[in-house]
Amino acid sequence: MTARVFGLGLVLALLSACGSDRPAAVVASASPPLVFSTPIVSCLPDGMSMIPKPFLPTARERMDYLKIYEQPAVIGLKHVLEAYANGRADTYARKQLVPYGVAIAKDGFIVLSIEKGIMGGKTMMLRFGRHADKIFNVWVYITSAGEPSLRGFEGVACSAAEQKWMAMRYAPFLALGDDRTLVGR
Fold first, then answer.
1. Residues 19-36: pLDDT tens digits?
2. Coil, strand, or helix at residue 153?
3. CA nearest 12: which of 30, 1, 24, 2?
C-alpha cells in the first residue's frame, strides 16, 4: 500500500511539475498505480552482506547441517534427479529439468536453505557443483502416496561477486567432495 501511495504522489508531483492542466482526480483515476514489479534477485540468502565471511562450522553445526540430507524432500529430489538422468522421470519433472540438461541431474549439490513450502512440500535453494554460476530454487512435494514430485526448478544467474561470496562462505561444505560427489549426491 505504501508503494502505491508513494507512487501516486510521485505521479501527481511529476504531472504538476510538467504543467498538466488535468484535474488531480482525473489524473489519479486515469493513471495505474506505480508498483515496483521487478524483484531484485540475488543468489545470496536474504539479509547477507556482499562482504564474504567464511563460515567455519563447529563439529555440531556440521552434523546438524548434514541432517538436512536425510529429509524426505531432499532424498526425493535425489530420486527425481536420478530418474531424469536415466530417462525415467515423469512428464512434469522432465518439463522442469529440460532447460538445464541431463548434466544438472548428474551433478552433486549442496542445500543452501530449506523451508516448508507455502503450498506444501519443501522449497530449497541449491548450488550444484558444476553449475556454480547459478543457484537453483526448487520445490519438491511429497504426494499422499509418499512419492516425490518436482513442482518447481528454476536457476537464477549469479554475478561473479556472488559466486566468489558463495565459494568462500560455503567452502567447508563444497570441500566435502569434488564436483561429482558433493553432499547432495
1. 434 333 333 334 343 333
2. strand
3. 24
* Cβ partners under 8 Å of residue 70, min gap 6: none
CA 115 → CA 31, 48, 158, 170, distances in Å? 39, 17, 21, 19
Q: What percent of the chain has a predicted confidence (pLDDT) above 70?
A: 65
Residue 131: per-residue pLDDT: 85
Q: Which residues contact 141 (CB under 8 A, 6 or more apart)?
A: 117, 119, 120, 121, 148, 149, 151
Which pLDDT tens digit goes with each residue over 109-148? 989 889 998 888 999 999 888 888 898 999 999 888 988 9
3-state secondary structure of 110: strand
List CB contacts of 140: < 8 A, sequence separation 6 or more. Answer: 73, 74, 76, 77, 80, 121, 122, 124, 148, 149, 150, 151
Cα(28)–Cα(165) distance, integer angstroms: 45
Q: Tell me the CA distances in angstroms from 36 to 39, 83, 87, one per residue in order.
A: 7, 40, 41
